[in-house]
Structures are given as structure tokens and as C-alpha cells.
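Obj.: predict assembly geometry.
Materials: sequence records (below).
Method: joint structure prediction, all chains together.
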Amino acid sequence: MNSFLFDALARIVGSRWVKHRRGELATYSMDGLPTHEAIPGVVVMPGSPHEVRELVRLLHLIQVPFVARGAGTGLSGGALAEEDAVLITLTRLNRILRVDGVRRRASVEPGVVNARLSEAVAPLGLQYVPDPSSQAACTIGGNVAENAGGPHCLKYGVTTNHIVSLEVVLPDGSVTRLGSEQGEPWGPDLVGLFVGSEGMFGIATEITVRLEQMPESVRTMLADFTTVRAASEAVSSIISAGIVPAALEMMDQACVAAVEASIYAAGYPTDAAAVLLVELDGQSEAVGGEAQTVENILLESGARAVRSASALGDRARLWQGRKKAFGAMGRIAPDLAVQDAVVPRSALPGIMDRIEEIRKQYRLTISNVFHAGDGNLHPNISFDRRDPATAARVQLACRDIMAACVAAGGSITGEHGVGSDKLDYMPWIFDAETLGAMRAVRRVFDPAERANPGKVVPVHACREWHAVKSARA
Amino acid sequence: MACSEERPRLSNAIFTRLRALLGTSGVDRDARGLARANPDTSDALSLVCRLAHEEGWKIRVEGRGTWLPPDAPADLVVSTLALEQIVSVSPADLVATVQAGASLEALRRRLADYGMWLAVDPPGRPERSIGSVIATATAGPLRHGFGPVRDHVLGCTVATGDGRLVNAGGRVVKNVAGYDLTKLQVGGFGGFGIIADVHLRLRALPRADVTLVARGPRDVLTSAARDLVSVHLLPSALELLSPALAAESEWVLAARFLGTDAAVQADVRRLGSFGDQKWQPLPADRTAAFWSVAARGSLGGPITLRLGVLGDGVDETIDLLSHDLDEGLISAGAGLGMIRWTGDAPIEQLRSLRRAAAAREIPMTLERAPWPVRRALGHFGAYREGVGQLVGRLRDTFDPGQCLTVALEGADNA
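Observations (raw C-alpha cells):
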């Protein structure tokens, strides 16, 4: 990176918003995953969609790679830039542009914080449903890039189910609008293709989302089990009964212990092998009836006790331990590797046993808190990365957990993305042809592969798809 | 474009080549004498596509022949009829893997044995193939409660126009590994490859299934539907049917509630006490027939199109349809939008309607029409600025030899 580039960037955004000193850059050397680190060449912070377009055009002209970044809460090393790349931080683009309560739509800039959007539409009786655990900090733009999930995605779907239209700046600096406010794709479903592309197809500068009506009634239930297997089986029984809870979360004993030893203590029984949180929502009478059914299922599955709450404050207390679990784990060790994988629901009991074996094998502390309803695991490894031997064992354990999930018919990521972290695992679930297809699609949007280079698709494992000059256009 | 009707000798040569590839039972001829490949595995499908690509043959893809007319000009037909296996059903995970040529009805029966269902009720006949429903993204009234077709597809295997096999997505209900290539195939009308098999997200069969109907003037019903959406009622479908489609003398608004007994009973009670509308419950033995008539009604004319609108635009858009075409056979998601029209109209009138819709920011997708209409107008017509270039490059990627005879844009916009 040279001063010519710094000056050119500063001419677009103002020198105040260009960071290139070593100390400044260090802030951006990681995301939420402490196992990956990279220092970007320069950080630039545009304040408007126009500035984003001008930046991307400039970088196209001089053929410099770039990485878009939101709040940096990602958990796959996806928003890291190497020193030959420009990191474009989008947190200044934080305006909620439009809210239409009647049509249940909101248009936002990418830097709007997830929770802020829900707060803004709450007075209208509406909510933006995808609720990653980092929702107090993560941005809608980052959610779009990663196709983020959250506890309430079991019933309502993940980010891709809530995005109807996008204005995007392609890596050549051109601007296009994908989708329609109505949710009907205007042509092939390019919104669906763009969401979850991890910043490699371009930068979304305006995001139109679908809002949902707040439920009339909500019931949260907490059940504790003496075995993880019994809790896992209860999960399957609830779904098989035709009930789709708004959320269905599990915490294992290690996680409960961490929570209860912290300031976030929620009164969870520390002797339980697993705790299930079940949330039902909908029409009040219906919720009441379904709650009874769920309670019966929980007890028949071996729950020792079921606590239930309807009032907001009471429900918040039941949720507190779950919501603050990651914070509570901060007490255990300086670093936390939050992992993410998916298995078919029926494989939950077996995979939990396997994770326990891996924990013992590598002599690590692993706490499990996860979205049990959709089989989305989060084994969290507490460690100190200053100890290279432990850090190496963490990597090996993560690899073994991924291998076990893939062997069970699952996937290497349910909501955190591939980023840098899971690049090596991609050939485990996709053959060379399919990886080649992904790379070819990426080249449709970004022929020079300058947007977030080196992520998601392991280029060495791809079968080559030759770029074809269009005879149709 | 080469067309075998003008090239009988080529057709014979193709037939011979395909027979060498697939065996005698894997090839026959369609009603017009065109060579038809019937691959029964994704590998065989891929080989057929590769051969066509190398020889420069044009392919027409056919499912069970109940939705899109089999009339696109081509050198050979690739049928998914032999890809009819329901490969696996996992009741505990609520996931099934199904070959593209399997019929909706066969799948429905098989899943019912396990107490499960696919919450999709597309227009057309129950014999429609799964591949057709997914490739055209034709969701029915249940879109209101269970989302569009894309929400039910976890992954798919696709043979590209040059015979590559791509395995998009996976078999788990939550998955963000790699780019979401499945989305390109759902509603891609086969322009990005031929779907060989799909992984589907299922649901437990609802314990209760109750439909109530209200009849009256259209504007009264659409207004009632909008009011219903704003209260805490959760119908799985809230569909407005034109008199012709419902085979009644008035417009019909139908609310369908699916779920547990407790939830459905609560919703039905509340519906009865809400507003001035008189709701009549359909007898249980008539519910399936009612929705089946509505679905089949979309075959009552040669052309079906859908317009993407929101609930507050339904009335105005039906006015537009009535003005530019005719009232015809209309099914509209009265709560959250999406209008489907079936009828007949000259190309120029459809073109004019699409322009008028575009001016109102309403996308119009041609779901079904004879080839001359598809060729002229395209399924999608003109794209927004910048999108056409992306779609063109995507098609070049997935069909570099332009073997797949699919009119996404249409001659108007080529």
C-alpha cells in the first residue's frame, strides 16, 4: 500500500476516515474468532452509498482487492483482509431509510445494527426476526453476507428468508438492484444467490427486509434433563408432533455451569446434563394448548422439571442464561473459539457423545450451547491462544468435530459461514465440480476475484470451469 | 435454431447415439418423432447433456407434460420421467430426497405414510413433477403460511447444459456452506441446468385442516383479507379466487388453517368473531376438492402468469389485469400478495401488460404459455439495469453451448 492510494481514498471519504497506521490497523486484524488474524493494508470508512461506489470504482481501476466489513462480529475469519487489500468498513452507513408498517418492509443501510432495526419497528407491532446472538452489535449488512441465523430462525427462517431486495455495488463499481419489494424475484433469484456470498459478489448498500408481526402471545419453557440423549430425543419428539416452536435451544452442563458461575446466573440447575429452552408463540389460545402438549412431551422424554413463563420479565430471566452464555464463557479462559456445524436432528445424541470424546482426547474445555431444533451445533472451546500447544489442539479438535458432523450427514456451517476458517473443509462436502461451479458463479459477479479474496471456495480444489464470453448479451 | 422436424436424418442419428449411451429402454420418440432420452440417474442425465453439448444439439426438457407445453424447438427431448424415485425419506429429520420426475401425488402418498408432507400446493395437476414445480417456482395458496417454493428446497443436483453435475446445498435444514446455488435453480425455468434430484424440507402432517370461505364483491373481500392480516390470525392460506376459477357466481375468499387442533380451533373461533364477513366452513370431505379445483383451474387457458404484488396492491393489479386482458381465472394471495392469472391473450396485449406492470414496479413472470409466446416475451422479460448482464453470464456458465432451449428473456429483450 502506498501514499498515492491513501490520498486517493482520502479524496473520496476524507482523510479522517482512512486508517493506515499500524496501531489503527490492529483493531481490524480479527473478527469474533480468535484463531485467525490478518493486518489489512489500509482501512477506509465510507459514509454514504455514493462513497462506497466511488471507492469500489477506484479499486477496480487500479485492480486492488478489497474486503467489506460490518461490526467485525463474524465467527469464521470472513472479514479479514491481507496487507495487499483495502478493508472497507461499513458501520458509518447506519441509516434506517424507510419503514412501511402496512407493507411490513424496511430498507436499511448495511451498517444498521440488527437489534436497532427491531427496536425501531417495535412500536408498530413488528419485528425483524433473524436474531444472531451478536444482535446487539452485528450489522444487517454482515447478516446478509453471512446469511446469519439465530434462535428464532427455527420457525421463521434465516436471513435469506427475510431479504426481499438489495441494491448492490458490484466489484467493477457498477450498481444494480436485485429482487423486488414484493419478494418476487425480478428474474432468477439473484437475491437468494447474493445472500450468504460472504462479501465475494459485491457490497450491498441498501437492504430491504421483510418484517413480521410480533406474536400475540409467547410462552418460554425451561426443562432440565439428566442426559443429553434424553434432551435430544425430546427435541425430535416436539418437532414430530407437528409443533414448530419459535426457538428450541439446548445448553449442556458445562455451559450451564459457566452461566451460573457468572453475573448472568439465571437459576438453571447446575446438576442437569442438559437444559432445553422451548419458546412457543402465536395466538394466545393456541400457545396455551401447544404449551401443554410440549410440557407433556418434555416430561415423557425424561425432563426432571419444566418451568414456564409468559410475562416478558419472567421470559427474559429464562432466556438470560442462553443469551449471555458466550459472555459467561469469557470467565473460563481468555479466548473462545465459537464453532458452528450442523447435523440432521436425529444425529444429535450421537454427535454430542462424539464431541465429548474429542474434548477428552485433546484435553480441552468445551461448552455446548446451540440451536437444537435445527441441529445447528455450537461447540465452544475455551482456551488461551498465547499457549501455542493448546491453540494447536483447538484446531485439531475443531477439525475432528467438523469431520464427525460431515460423517453424520451434516454441514460444516449452519450460520457463521466458511470465511477463512473452514476453507479446508469445503472439499469434504462438495466435489471438485461443485466447487468449480461456485468459483465460476463468483467470477460472474467478480471476474478478477478481488472482492474478499481467498475466502469460501478453496481454489486449489476446484475443477476448472472455463469462462465463456457471452454470446447472449 | 436447428429443429429436427426439418432435419429428420439428424433425428435418427441422435436416436442412435442416445441408444448407444442409454440402452434401448432409455430412448424413445415423442409424439412428433423427436428422439427422447429418458435417463434414470443423474449420471445418465449428465452424459446426455454432455453429448448434446459436444454435438451442438438443442435440448428441450420435459417433466410429466402437465404444465409447460412440450413445444420448444429442439433436436432432442430430455425427459425426467424415468427420474421418478423417491430416494429417501427421513421422518426424524423431516427431510426427503426425491428425483425430479417424481410426481407430487406419489410423493404426497409416500410422505403421508410417515405422517409428513411437503407444504407446497402448486397450480396444475397432482401428477406434476417435483422438478417442474421447483424449476418454475410455482407456489400456490400455502405460500401465505409456509413461504415460497425456495423455502422448501434444501439442495439439489443439477446437470448443466454441458453435462457437469453440480450438487448444490445439502440435506440439513440449516446450511450456509458455500454459495447458495440452489436458489438459482428454483425458479430458473431450467435455464441454468436440468434438475436431477432435490432435497426437500418436510413438515409433520397437521392434525387439523379447516377451510372457511366468504363470498362477495372483490373489493369487500380484499379489504377483509387485509384486515385479517393485521390481527393475530395465522391462516396457512388466504386466497382470493375469481368467480370463474372458483366455479361460483361471486368472488371467493378462502382461509385455510392447518396445524394442531388447539391452534386451528382458536383461529377458527377468532375468525368467526372478526369483522362483518360471513364465513362458512367447508365440510371436511370437500376441503381437498375445493383446493384441487382451484389448482387445476390454472390449466383452464393456455397462458398462466404471476404478478408480484403486496396485499395492498391486489385490487389495483386485478383491475389492471381485467383492463388489459380479462378477469379470467385469477388466484391471488389476498393477504401477502402474488396474483396468478390464467387465460388467453395475444402477445401484444401481454407485452403491454408487462410494461404497465413494470411501470408500477410489479414483476410479471410468464409461468406457462405456448412456445411462440414464451419465445417472444420470455419468462421474465426485460431485467433491471445490470441484471441482464449477470443473468447472461450465469447462463453462459451453466450452459456454455446454449443447448437448453429456454426463453428466459424472450426475443423482445434479446
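Conclusions so far: DSSP finds 14 helices and 19 strands in chain B.
To do: check interface contacts against the pulldown list.
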